[in-house]
Fold this protein.
Amino acid sequence: MAVPAIDHIVIDTADRMDAAAARYAALGFQLTARAHHSLGSSNHLSVFEDDYLELLSPGSGARPELMGFPIGMNGLVFAMKDAETVHAGLAQTGLPVGAVQQFTRGVDLPDGTQDTAAFKTVRLEPRAVFDGRVYFCEHLTPQLVWRPEWKVHPNGAQAITRVALAATDPAGMAGTFERMFGTGAVSRPGGPLVLAAGKVAVEIWQREALARSLGPAMPDAAGRGDHMALFGIRVRDPAATEALLKANGIRVEKPGAGRLLVPAREAMNVAIEFTG
């Protein structure tokens, strides 16, 4: 299987969805209205050009696969077109993969009407790749996700650029991704290993090296082993983004030219990098 693009990333909010939504609004992300999946969970989205960020709450416990994860970024989701074909390919790798799942959620549209978005997913068993969830999402109603009016953000966000994973054994994690996507899917340029997923660089860092790179901005592992730590966002104007964040009381670090780093303690245990 060729490496697909990243569809979205997931921040688990546990029972703090209200706090998470308020915080990400303060970070300058426009959020869609809270929606409820037919599976029992709830979410808000922040929609970009071709991908999006999802704030997710497990709800009343109807989704046991979401339970046990701490607040933070715990979901890496790849795009797919044909769920059944993707499922068959993953099953052949020997990795633990669940059945194709189809579900819906309500959508509150800007004109006051409502509609229903539908999806198919193929999920590896939780913790099959890292201490989190990896799955594939097929949008049956993409027009109910990527609406132009939802792509406009006060912070100027346009697209996800990178996702950084902290690993005790980067080569081992890379090997799992190559079981999924084929030998050579992960490049070894020196420094972190990189899985190029469309326009997003999925970086596999040795945990201590990433902690040194991020310093105090590093998220709390909160009991996780290998885990997702940081995502990057391309913004229209970094100076305007910095001004908005500071006006909203968000602490911002500037580790390099054109880079803004929001520490994990400011963003629900997720480090965020903004670049132009």
Q: What stands out?
A: The two ends are 32 Å apart (CA to CA).
